[in-house]
Structures
1.
Amino acid sequence: MKQFDSTYISKLLQGQAGVHQVASQLQVRGYNVMFPSVDHGYDLEVEGGVRVQVKCAHLSFRKPYEYGAYMFRLRKSNRKGREAVPIFSDKNHFFVLWGIEENRFWIVPAHVLDGKSGASVGPKVSYVSVDIEHARNMLASGREIEEVASLYECSVATIQRRLKGIYTKTSRGFCIELRSFEGKWEQIPDFLNSMREADGLPLLAESQAMVKAE
């Protein structure tokens, strides 16, 4: 019988906790949630056909986010260690990202994450712009790297990475876009209504009114 290490089991439990946490958030908002018995590439389906993928993460202080961030891994490596470019919107309508420590939720349309391997959001996710040539000249003139870091209001590690050509481009626009989806649960009924409208069905509010009248 195959043995699984404690790290693998912990990740499985965390993933299931995330699925049930998101399901409960949807249910208290009045939506009937179904759990697929077979893995079709999504974790939950809201009655009416909205497919949801759930990802969760602990607050991390790993580089380059010294001030903390939730770092969500969106795809897995294949056996050769290479990763195919994922098109999540083929199977999902939304991703719900759960930040465990602060119980925060980002409800992200799946197409926003197409082609992404991960997403980082959280309390202070930021990017410090450093004039690399200027930093090099300061160091060449005998200035200490701590002084350069102080000038740019960042850590010494940030200056060292920039000088090595690491993280020289920002994905700040993407991070800002992700932040805008925090708590946006209303996107789900809006999407359900667009689907119902396309099928010629009454909108949710109208449908609920009809049920109450009966």
Note: Confidence is low (pLDDT under 50) at residues 209-214.
2.
Amino acid sequence: MKSIFCVLLLFISSVYAVEESKKEKSILGLWKGHFGKKELSLNFKKDGTFTGIEKGKEFQGKYKVDFSVTPHHLDLIIDGNAGLSIFIFIDKNTIKMDEPEEKRRKQFRKETISLKREINSIKLP
């Protein structure tokens, strides 16, 4: 009886852990941060589009995310040109991101972009 209870408890906790990790893997919402002296904001929407502001200039485009690799891949497509980046979650509302480039880096540089999600920007599941 005790072993059945332990197996059931392990199963329930593993299902819970999988569900929790799915929740964390969302970049939807408004993210703000700094890269050196540059202020940056990115707003990722459910329809695969995003808007951003850097140095007071607004831009918009489409994005793609691949959570199956670590660090995760983020493609920002603006006017047909793709900026390829990598990122990881520091916690549910903080990401560390490399500056997007034409060719995706495999490792982070020393200087990265740290973005915090504006909590009230979107309702998360």
Note: The first strand starts at residue 29 and ends at 35.
3.
Amino acid sequence: MRRLAMIPAVFLGLCLWLAPVAPVIGAPKPLQIYFIDVEGGQSTLIVDPQGESLLIDTGWDDFNGRDANRIMIAAKSAGIDHIDDVLITHYHTDHAGGVPQLASQIKIGTFFDHGPNTEMTTETRATYAAYEKVAAQAKRVTVKPGDEILAINGQSTSNLILPDVREAIRREAVGDKLTLLLESGGKQRTVVVTLKDLV
């Protein structure tokens, strides 16, 4: 009889022990940021809680596709099968060189860049030409000075300077959520961020 009485207690103990590893149904996804080692260049993959993805730079070309392969490992880890946006900061080989290799492995929605190349080194011209060829097969947006965050939780940021924007972000958070309306190159997107994911 005493053994039968222990069954519920053992079952409850087992459930409590397993609870931390059991998936929570409906739990919000975190903001995911991957700093990808491209050995001297730069590449960062950001996936927001809604699954929208932004890759900043693609690392080097060559090296048997090393950097594109590392980005693909990060994308797989993030659970994405395409990259919504790729932002190219500049056309040096260690930042934009990996575009052709990456584009051959994963669908890319939109490329964002600062416009035509202005550097005349042979290497940078070659990297830019390869980038242009790939970007022509997708949507391409030239980011201009003045592109901005338009609203935070519906509050316009048009009259705010940077410290005020930071304060508005802190003040306007609803619970642990923050909604940003972003615009770049005429494209608007609403992003909801879970603040605890930023800590």
Note: Residues 31 and 199 are 10 Å apart (CA to CA).
4.
Amino acid sequence: MRGERMLVGEGLACTNEGMRIAHDIVSELKEQLAEELLTLLDGWDQTDAAAQVGLRQPDISLMRAGQLERFSVARLLRMIANQGYHIEIALKPIKRPTVTRERPSGSVQRYDRLGHPVVLDDEEE
């Protein structure tokens, strides 16, 4: 652990690697949430889409370009919820992470009005 900073709190130890993994998960989650929000706004011009979710047109342009630095996960969740969607978060334990080296991950699943999972075009391949 030479050269690695160790943070201890609430009984958990976090290394720089752990912080990087957490940052990666948040970035991945932001990308997925933005993709879902943009799917909900598909077919709308930027001005109308911005008005629908309470943003300015340049913010929609940034989101469509994948520039998500100005959007927090909480902000994206609020915009999706304001479109009439419930938000569910599931926490699943990693099976013995020290043995399997399974990395934590995040995912987003949208459901239609009947409760069926929506499959995006790129997931069907």
Note: The chain has five helices and two strands.
